[in-house]
Design a protein that fits this description.
Blueprint: H1 4-21, E1 24-31, H2 35-50, E2 53-60, H3 66-78, E3 84-87, H4 97-103, H5 115-122, H6 131-142, E4 151-155, H7 162-171, E5 175-179, H8 186-191, E6 195-198, E7 216-219, E8 223-225, E9 228-230, E10 243-244, H9 251-271
Parallel strand pairs: 1-2, 1-3, 4-5, 4-6, 6-7, 7-10
Antiparallel strand pairs: 8-9
Helix pairs in contact: 1-9, 2-9, 6-7, 6-9
């Protein structure tokens, strides 16, 4: 159940829409020189360029202070050439991540982390939602996984994956259980799931006897090991599950595709007479 082909299709559609809209800009702010973050930013820029979206690469020194960061965000908010804006995390310890997220104009918040957008998602209203969560739902839809009335279990409650995935599943009329590190009997919760989404970051946390026969399993986890990228789900789960996304090549490629799609949606709002955000 690969994500690459679907991600390619979404990116091609984004490119078509971007060409229709004219010049689009996606700005990223990277503080410091964390190599992993620099790689992620590089991938986002390359994908944006490929889709005809102009990347704007703002780099700030590792010791930048909060005021300077907020000033740079404000300048990009005010810049009409910028349709989407994100602040790459993690930020160095002297910086307040939540304050930076809240400083981004919600209409340009392509990461979907501004409380306005997160609140709209919670209320079940159209919004810009985090790209990885949108990618999970797009994959489930691509493979016609029935969500209405399904028992969905989400393991992990981060603001970028677990929480928004749970809200999106709820909007689709699944009966949703959220699990985390303090869940009393995680195995029992997982075994009850028709749809199981795992976003924890512990390699092979989910093994075959923790999965219901025929369940749809989405593995969001990515851990770098000496043997390459490893997911949260043991690949042997494929023998039990009806559907399992691979790592790598499952949710991973979807994230950038949906980030670009969010940029197009944000641009449509800013250029059109539509009420925010675009539904
Ligand atoms: P995170 O912020 O570290 O959150 C991890 C979540 O897992 C927390 O809610 C934590 O519970 C829960 N958890 C930890 N240990 C657990 C256990 N033993 N049993 C049950 N739950 C447990 O992580 P994240 O940012 O959501 O990322 C999760 C994974 O997805 C990582 O491997 C990350 O690399 C990957 N990821 C992939 C993509 C992609 O594009 N494919 C995007 C984002 C993240 P508490 O809340 O109780 O601490």
């Amino acid at each position: 159940m690969a994500g690459r082909a679907l991600a390619e299709r979404i990116r091609a559609e984004v490119a078509r829409e971007a060409a229709e809209l004219g010049r689009l800009g996606l700005a990223t702010i990277l503080v410091g020189d964390d190599p992993a973050s620099a790689v992620y930013i590089g991938h986002k820029h390359a994908a944006a360029e490929q889709a005809g979206i102009e990347p704007v690469d703002v780099r700030l020194p590792v010791d930048v202070d909060q005021d300077e960061l907020l000033e740079r965000i404000a300048a990009l908010n005010a810049d009409d050439a910028i349709d989407g804006l994100l602040v790459q995390t993690p930020l160095p310890p002297q910086l307040d991540e939540a304050a930076a997220q809240e400083a981004v104009d919600p209409a340009k918040d392509v990461d979907g982390l501004h409380p306005t957008n997160a609140g709209r998602l919670y209320l079940g209203r159209p919004t810009l939602a985090p790209a990885t969560a949108l990618g999970v739902l797009a994959l489930l839809d691509e493979y016609d996984v029935a969500l209405e009335g399904a028992r969905a279990v989400v393991v992990g409650r981060s603001e970028i994956v677990g929480r928004p995935v749970a809200q999106l599943l709820l909007q689709r009329n699944a009966t949703v259980t959220m699990c985390h590190s303090k869940t009393a009997d995680l195995a029992a919760e997982m075994r009850a799931a028709d749809v199981l989404v795992v976003a924890v970051g512990i390699p092979h946390l989910v093994i075959p006897d923790k999965v219901k026969a025929g369940a749809a399993v989405v593995d969001v986890g990515i851990t770098r090991t000496a043997d390459g990228l490893v997911g949260d789900v043991d690949p042997a789960v494929a023998e039990v599950a009806g559907f399992l996304t691979p790592v790598p090549g499952g949710v991973g490629p979807m994230t950038i595709a949906l980030l670009l799609q969010n940029t197009v949606r944000a641009a449509r709002y800013r250029r059109g007479p539509l009420a925010f955000p675009v539904g």
